Fold this protein.
Amino acid sequence: MTDLGIVLDLSGSPSGPTIAEIARATERAGLDVIVVPTPAEDGLDGWTVATWVAAATARIAVGLSRTRPVMPQPTGAAIPIPAVAEKARESLDLLVGPRLLEKGWTEAPADAGPDQVRALAKDGHTVVVPVTSVADVERVAGLLPDRPRSTRGAAARARRRPGIDYDNVPASLADTAVEPGDPRYRSVRSTYMRGGSPGLVLRPRTADQVADALAFAREHRDLPLGIRSAGHGLSGRSTNDGGLIIDVGGIDSVEVLDVERRLVRAGPGATWKQVATAIAPHGWAISSGDHGGVGVGGLATAGGIGLLGRAHGLTIDHVRAVEMVLADGTQVRASAEENSDLFWAVRGAGANFGIATAFELEVDEVAEVGWAQLTFVSEDVEASLLAYARAQTQSPRDTTVFLVTGSPQRGQSVIQLYGMVESADPDTIIERLNAFVPVGQLAQQQVVLTTYASVMSTAADVGPDGHHGAGEPVGRSGFLPELTPEFARDAAAALRGGRLRWFQLRAMGGAIADVAPQETAFSHRDPDFQVTGLGAFHAEMDEVWQPLEAHMEGLYLSFDTAPGPGRVERAFPPPVLDRLRDLKSRYDADGLFRDNFPLAPGARA
Amino acid sequence: MTDYGHDLLFGSFITPSAAGAQQALQLAQLADAEGLDLVSFQDHPYQPAFLDTWTLMTWVAAQTSRVRIVPNVINLPLRPPALLARQAASLDLLSGGRFELGLGSGAFWDAIESMGARRLTAGQAVAALSEGIDIIRELWDTGTRGVARVPGEYYSVDGAKRGPAPAHPVGIWIGAYKPKMLALTGAKGDGWLPSLDYLPEGVDSLPTLNAHIDAAAQEAGRPVTAVRRLLNLMRAEFSTNGTGFLDGPPQMWAEQLADVALLHGVSGFILGGDDPVKTQRFAAEVAPAAREIVAAERM
């Protein structure tokens, strides 16, 4: 194809309406790009003219050379601040669509004839010709009347990433796929906690389409491959830079299969809020995480340490069957009876084995629950942690309470407890919660008698605009067999140090520990707590976490983002790891799934 | 009693929300069609939910025909003054003289620093704004021969070409509350653009704050009328039987605003709230009635 366009000649100081008129005429004439020339020092500002042109037109690419980044001098009065310029580019995309083109054109002389333009266009260059009037535009448009055209605009093509065969996306996915030059890209590029710039997002809606997506991924083995359900993962492997994403968010149906057996079928792209809402009319619930916005697929293949965990176990303990597509495109069903090895592996290490397209879940009868949010202040966070652990471990199974705190401010820690008491009796609820009073000085409390679905529903809907996480979360996790005074001392020191910004304890025990460790690939059944920490920088966090990790075993895939080696080995104890590696060589020998705690040797984290 | 005698301006304060860009445009086009004088946009580049204000203002200017576009107010620490001068002149030229420059010294320094600008104390930021205004005025001044040289501690230009010159004398309207900023407004500003909610005693603060500006203007050898006074009004409701300030029927608003104009010299009223119905009534019912009262009183 050959792209042909104009470059605005601003030397005669054309008025705003004249510039808009030329721009509209250029678009009407079917030309491909309007280039705004790099301005003279005392000329019209390039960004302002480019925005003006983009606002006056609807589809055509607008070219403006990116000014060479200059290190801003403190007193430099003329140099844009790079982050502000980047924000302006993002805003222009949002206002007029991804139409900004920042390089890739060649300027022909104003009086160039067809042969000269054809010669300049030979190597696929976009050729632009200077114009000062609508008449000039019409002349340029007549230069190459029969030039081959692309269905996708010049600006969109310029944003494509290397190594992706964009023109051969499987037909079943072509309509819903999103690439960087699409207006929808902004809504799919990032996840809840991580900014991303994938090269292509495939959005299958059926198992067959997932198989098509995987066939495409197999043709692009050298690129990062992220699998996304609802994009909530803290570990954040569901977006990347320049790679592929298979986003199963559209496979989100929830249906009751068997009322007697309380058997529910859910797609990986449904959120736990949707699941909770769909099954609530039956008086049912399933313990998921602590946030309704989390997707089914990521959580139900990793664990699921939730607000009813001590009463009802992990989410994976409710999985009765998984339908999935393997790396080679085979569609299989895994359950206790069929592909039982795979069924074992997918409950705790699912991301290594395939893409789940449906889960069959046996849910629980859960009537009303007491939902508590308690805020304490404490001058002795060490004592508070011990008091919380004592209260939680001595509680009956009906009580699951999580703790969150951060760095103390002026010697005072704010400690949030939130959790559920599975009881409809207010006296029982109060009695259970009273055990936590020694945690600190109670500053705020909210306790309501409600349903599990209502609590999940407090999560905001993400909506069509998608997630807009930025940067990368720095998370560490582990399992605490017992919250000892030594751990409380070290955790308090880490919190006081200021670099451990966010710290969470999730209560385990109870029904979680009823399941034998060898039953599922998630084998950390005995610990009292699961611990998560968030910081700002990996190196800093490694230092902070080291003394805490000495008290812990294992790690929880969902909350750990450590880039270093040995994390897979830490996540899975030796016999589990051996079995997983054996299965990996059976189900994904070439390591197609290698971006999320990969089991294969030599794979990247 | 102070009336500086400026024609009254009525405007709208529109949130530059990224999720609501089309609504922002529709509000601006409504203001354009209904005869409001100004549409204005706050500038917080570090706010992820907001659009880049410069890009939004240009996009809006290209799709309106009559109304003037005003940043309310520009965050100078994140928009270096020589660049800002050229962008402002360019937007004024493209829009046919429909731009005025609301300007502030910056707040929220953690966020400003996180975008890559330096952190200044409040006092330093006033000095930096003063230097910035000097640079902007120099670069706009193409009537003077030779390159622009403005030495400064926070910003400087040394041998910059002048231009482009704006299409009309663009007003520099300063968001000011504290004595040093008010003094700068009196000495160098063409307008004062505070928000009523941030004045310590609301309308009752106006005499004191005006006096600060007036004193500084006189000290700089300028007439006090060189500085137009404007006011952002964020909390205002139409009601049939309300009795408070800007809580009542349109005629009552008109009387109250006319009072503020005649007693305190405020000649620009900018209404927030992002509400099309309120905006329309402000333009169609309040503005003409207030103008009528003020014109009658001034005769």
Remarks:
- The first strand of chain A starts at residue 4 and ends at 8.
- Residues 293 and 460 of chain A are 7 Å apart (CA to CA).
- Residues 82-96 of chain A form the longest helix (15 residues).
